[in-house]
Amino acid sequence: MLKRIASSWLFVAGFLSPALAFDPVRVDQVKYTKQCPKCDLSEADLFGEDLRGANLQGAILIGVDLEKADLRQANMRQADLSLSFFWGSNREIGLRANAGGSILRGANLQGANLEEANLTGADLEGANLSEANLVGANLQSANLRGTKLKNADLRKANLCDAIMPDGTKSKAGCRD
After folding, report:
1. Distance (Å, whole) CA 61 – CA 49
2. Long-range contacts of 135-139 (CB under 8 A, 24+ apart)
3. For 79-105, how does the pLDDT look when each residue is reduced to its tens digit (9 = 90+)?
4. Across-strand partners of 118?
5. Residue 125's closest CA among 105, 98, 139, 109?
6. What is the pLDDT of residues 55-74, one digit of tens each?
7. In this structure, which of 1, 20, 89, 172 has its CB flanked by the most CB atoms within 10 Å?
8. What value does the CA radius of gyration of the chain take, rounded to a whole number of Å?
9. Residue 6 pLDDT > 60, yes or no?
10. pLDDT of res. 171
C-alpha cells in the first residue's frame, strides 16, 4: 500500500515539477540572430552551429550539445552550461569566448580549444577538460575542484586564486 502511494506521489510530482526543455523559437533565435541573453536553451541541440559572436549572457544552457559549435567571441558570461557537451568545439579554430562567471559544472570540454578564453570565476567543478587547449586562458578565481585536466595544455594560463582539482588554491599567474 505504501509503495502504491509513493509511486502515485512520484507520478504526480513529475507533472508538477518544471521540466528542462528548450523553446524551438529560442533555438531559431540564437541560430539566426545570435542574440539570446538570459533565455533557456536547456537540452537544445546546437551541434556544429556557427555561434560566433553570439550573446548568450546569463542564458540557461544546461545539457546543451555544443559539440563542434563555433563559439569564437561568444559572450557566455554568467551562463549556466552545467552538463553541456563541447567535445571538439573549435578544435582547430580557437575559442576566445567570454565565459567569465559561467556555471560549467560537469561540462564535457574534452579536446576543446579554449585558447585565451575568459573563464574568470567560472564554476568548472567536475568538468572534463582533458586534452583541452587552455593556453593563455584566464582561469583566475575559477573553481576547478574535481575537474579532469589530463593532458590539458595550461601554458601561460592565469590560475591565480583558482581552486585546483585537489581543492588547493593556486597562485600561478598571481602578481606579487
Report:
1. 14
2. 138/100
3. 787 766 665 554 443 445 656 677 788
4. 98, 138
5. 105
6. 888 888 888 887 777 777 77
7. 89
8. 18
9. no
10. 95
